Amino acid sequence: xREPALVKLExxxxxxxxxxxxxxxxxxxxxAERVVGEARELG
Length: 43
Description:
With about 45 residues, this protein is of the alpha+beta class. The chain has one helix and two strands; from the N terminus they run E-E-H. It has one domain. The protein has a two-stranded antiparallel ribbon.
């Protein structure tokens, strides 16, 4: 089984980062705000 290709996005300074989908679309607004805020705190 092949792994899906990793899509990278180029930043304004020329560096690249992987494009990730967090799957927050299923969350209500309050829960999405909470989990995204927690993820930001964790880095």
